Amino acid sequence: MKKTFFISLILSFSLHCGYAQVYKPTWESIDSRPVPEWFSDAKFGIFIHWGLYSVPAWAPTKGPVYEKYSEWYWARQNPKDKPFPAFTEFHNSVYGAKTSYTDFVSDFKAEMFDPAKWAEIFKQSGAKYIVLTSKHHDGFTLWPSEQAWNWNSVEAGPHRDLAGDLTQAVKQAGLHMGFYYSLYEWYNPLYKKDLPKYVSDHMIPQMKDLVDRYRPEILWTDGEWEQTSDQWKSPDFLAWLYNESPVKETVVVNDRWGKETRGKHGGFYTTEYDLVGDLAADRVKFGHPWEECRGIGGSFGYNRNENLEDYESSESLIRILIDKVSMGGNLLLNIGPTADGRIPVIMQQRLKDIGDWLSINGEAIYGTRAWKNTIKEKKGENIFFTAKGDDLYVIATQWQNQPIKVQGVTKANTVSMLGFKGKINYKVSENTITINFPQVSPSHSLSKYAWVLKIAGGAK
């Protein structure tokens, strides 16, 4: 009996291994792996840029988008690197020319950092996943990386495993946890002198340590643009990630793995402040997962120079979320904590407003896909569509006093407004549904900023 059970177990294991997908270190093979569905269902995530750059926390608020990034402070205040006079002038006048960026490590203390409170804020925002900058282009890591000796948050600065503490809190809150990781480092001597050795002895071991140690479900790489994916050995690393890592079944990656890979290779495609071109129609047509990342203001890292007018309103951010999701994408909305570990109150307020809206209308966001007629039936600036199964959601970012006409709908089992218990009047005629918004009063306590009509059976 025991022998028979043992043989059956071996056969079962052999069959399982025989049918398991093995990914080769080629883009053809790597790209054949489907992006796990949880990512396309999640729709809304929080990006966190936090590091030594949170100490000076400064960038201009005018000019091209990329010049507003405070996390680029080290490279831009250094006149020997890139000519950005505004950064150099600010640095010299406030800190003095003899103060180096590395001196900021003593003021990056994170003494107010409360990971459980952060996770609570994220949960209330309605976000489903979190992406923390484990290491930006300055090379400083937020975990005790062996490859970043004495240049990490445990051996210097806060003397705390920031990545580990936040990972634990986020996972306890039931959210997906992920990490941003910069492939290159501005001033790492090994990177400047011996790229192959940097990749094999520094970068890849560091990424594997991050994955093995914290088991993230998102690996969001960046800083890829100076080298090809072959030079970064990206296909080799991804083959390990998909075949051998502890998160091989659930991990999601982006498309920043070499200067030729954005929008072509990797996992989900990325845009940044909509700067990578208008690919919306292609995204809807081919259904490839994608994500827009952007800050609440003009910078990813905290920028003390930003004022109220530099921040998007809650209404604007909810509209951005609706727009991206209607095109089949996700929104990764960034916050920039302060050097002492606080999430600025204005950012908390924006996140709470998004969460309040999603608590009523999340059904039209989570788990949805772009409607088959989204591009053709786009109703200008104020009407958006999402679909889930047989149901169609019509999202209006302005209250509609005139009837809405939607073509491509031949059937409606029911029509309702999310958060409203009254009757919705509608009529289906041939290939068009006409819907009237209800008469409402303040007692109805409807959601602010945007309203959702659910057409049950309308997406067929």
TrEMBL record:
SUPFAM superfamilies xref list: (Trans)glycosidases
Alphabetized Pfam families for the sequence: Alpha_L_fucos (PF01120), Fucosidase_C (PF16757)
Domain Alpha-L-fucosidase C-terminal as annotated: residue spans: 380-455
Domain of life, source organism: Bacteria
Glycoside hydrolase family 29 N-terminal domain: residues covered: 20-363
Gene3D superfamilies associated with the record: Glycosidases, Golgi alpha-mannosidase II
Keywords: Glycosidase, Hydrolase, Signal
Signal sequence extent: none
Residues annotated as transmembrane: none
Known role: Alpha-L-fucosidase is responsible for hydrolyzing the alpha-1,6-linked fucose joined to the reducing-end N-acetylglucosamine of the carbohydrate moieties of glycoproteins.
Membership in a protein family: Belongs to the glycosyl hydrolase 29 family.
Name assigned to this protein: alpha-L-fucosidase
Organism, scientific name: Dysgonomonas termitidis
